[in-house]
Amino acid sequence: MKAVTWHGRHDMRVEDVPDPKILRPKDAIIKVTSAAICGSDLHIYNGHIMGMKAGDIMGHETMGEVVEVGPGVKEFKPGDRAVVAFNVACGECFFCKRRLFSACDNSNLNAELTEKVFGHAPGGIFGYSHPFGGYAGGQAQYLRVPYADTTMLKVPHGPPDEQLLFLSDILPTGYMGAEFCEPEPGDTVAVWGAGPVGQMAIRSLKMLGAERIIVIDNVPDRLRLAAEAGCETLNYDEIDIPEALRDMTAGIGPDRCLDAVGMEAHGTGVMDAVDKVKQRLKLETDRPAVLREIIMCCRKGGTVSLLGVYAGFIDKLNWGIAFNKGLQFRMGQTPVMHYAPMLLKAVLEGEVDPSIIISHKIALDDTPKAYDLFDKKEITKAVIFPNGQPATDRLDAAATETKQANLRA
Amino acid sequence: MGYSTTGEAEQKKRGLNDSRAHEFFENGRRIVEATLVQQPAQRIFEFWRNFENLPQFMQHLEKVQAFDDGRSRWCAKAPAGTTIEWDAEIINEKPGELIAWRSLSGSEVQNAGSVRFIDRGRRGTEVRVTMEFVPPAGKLGELMARITGEHPQHQVRSDLRRLRQLLETGEIPTTLGQPSGRDDDKVEEKEETR
């Protein structure tokens, strides 16, 4: 089969690799109908995630059709349609029993190595480095899904992939970030980052009844999407964010602050330059420009909801300020299968349409190029069709063809 | 109560409190490691009590033969395809709660161990392992060190992780045999498709 493989910083390739096989009784094999490039894949693309090996297959936002199941799989049979959660979750351990699926204690087979740095190892993640289990990812024509019953969500035939695919990661992730905020009537929620996760968070905040949302980014297309969802928008290239937020909240600051940017935040000034050098030299893994700004802006006693991704170590974090302002921090990798069944219902009932963020629909061969454009923020969200685009989905074929032509140019 | 390998009464009965036994453990190493398993204590006890199951999750074990008289023959993997063997006996056993064993005197490898299964209610069953062994001298000692690695504690920890994976989910996850763009993996595929 064909798969997108990582070979080093800014070196993604499409290669012929062996087809996946059933390796354990609870495995399933799916034929991938669509897969997406996640913002967190860019951290790998840019060489900021440790523990990748050349040749690793990328991708953790995947859906498709079940083609084979092991003898231990009970919930799925060939022909079923499934969305694959980015976290591999066994469903049986201490953590899965508490629905903390991203903390699964059985799925990370490199836990010994990871524990040395993390203290405890998070669960396995598809296509996201060996400290997270070293599982082959879904930017490929086929994917092996371990612990299939609790790692995949069964979805009905009918709705296009575009509406369902993001149940694999960014919709549950955005929803979790919104839930962390626990918006109350009258609250102002500020969202840093209007990329795919930020957009999902905004829509989830609306579902949870947030009255006032202020969105911060510098990409006009992304700010337009936020404005269309009924948010106020701030372009950080044009305006001083702390000043603006202070003014817009009569001096007290936003009650809830959500970080949908993470470790590659674009900062300004000396601090940012120092962070960039340190990150390149591996003295610091994560650049916390947005996190620092949030700590400055958030109102006293407010909530900081972090979706990141953050991967490791941060320098010069204004932690004492966070302490003295009494901020609450909530963060983490999303336990996708905790949220996905409820969000599937919301999608099917039309309460939220995640497909609005898709800007490019591409073939597998175009994926390395798409990484480059996504990194330059010329793409909002690219969806890959590794086995060809379904014939039933030609509604916006003209627009897609134009974008594909641009991609090849 | 500490981490005694055997119950106190049992120790007295077996004469383990005499100076010889004391010396045995003084010179040896002790490893204590625990994990929570989401299975009833009785089930985990039964699985462990059948010593022939142990190689399924104890990576360095090749084979364990259990005999009717409570004795067993343990066979560990050694480098270059060789093995080390020793005989052991059960010295304490409480169904659903405790198993303790030690190598028979005269064994090349002197060791003792116990595992307790403690019901922690909603948190699951605590499986607490204590291992004690005297690192053998000379060539055998070198061999043992290579088997157990530089950190025997980590060996026990990862064995317990595999036990948990096996009993909770029925399988030990793997990525061995999954596709990648690495040359050696591609070669393997070529050979298979031939």
Describe this protein's structure.
The complex is a heterodimer of chains A (409) and B (194). The longest helix of chain A is centred in the C-terminal third of the chain and has 13 residues, at 336-348. In chain A, the strands form four sheets. In chain A, strands 3, 5, 6, 9, 10, 17 and 18 form a seven-stranded mixed sheet that branches. In chain A, strands 13-12-11-14-15-16 form a six-stranded parallel sheet, with helices on both faces. In chain A, strands 2-1-4 form a three-stranded antiparallel sheet, covered by helices on one side. Helix content of chain A is 32%, strand content 20%. Chain A has two domains: 2-169 and 335-408, Quinone Oxidoreductase, Chain A, domain 1; 174-331, Rossmann fold. Chain A starts with a strand and ends with a helix. By secondary structure, chain A is α/β, with parallel strands linked by helices. By secondary structure, chain B is of the alpha+beta class. Chain B has a single domain (8-193), classed as Alpha-D-Glucose-1,6-Bisphosphate, Chain A, domain 4. Chain B has six helices and seven strands, in the order ααβαββββββααα. A seven-stranded antiparallel sheet of chain B has the order 1-7-6-5-4-3-2, with helices on both faces. In chain B, β5 and β6 (110-119) form a beta hairpin. Chains A and B meet through β2 and β4 of A and α5 and α6 of B.
Could you give a short description of this structure?
The complex is a heterodimer of chains A (409) and B (194). Chain A is of the alpha/beta class and 409 residues long. Helices cover 32% and strands 20% of the residues of chain A.
Shape call of chain B: globular
CATH topology (level 3) name of chain B: Alpha-D-Glucose-1,6-Bisphosphate, Chain A, domain 4
Helix content of chain A: 25-40%
The structural class of chain B is alpha+beta
How big is the Rg of chain B?
19 Å
Query: What number is the mean pLDDT of chain B?
Result: 80
> What structural category do the secondary elements of chain A indicate?
alpha/beta
Number of separate helices of chain A: 15
- Enumerate the spans of chain B where pLDDT stays under 50 for 5 or more consecutive residues: 1-8, 10-25, 187-194
- Biggest β-sheet description of chain B: 7 strands, antiparallel
**CATH superfamily membership of the largest domain in chain A, which one?**
Medium-chain alcohol dehydrogenases, catalytic domain
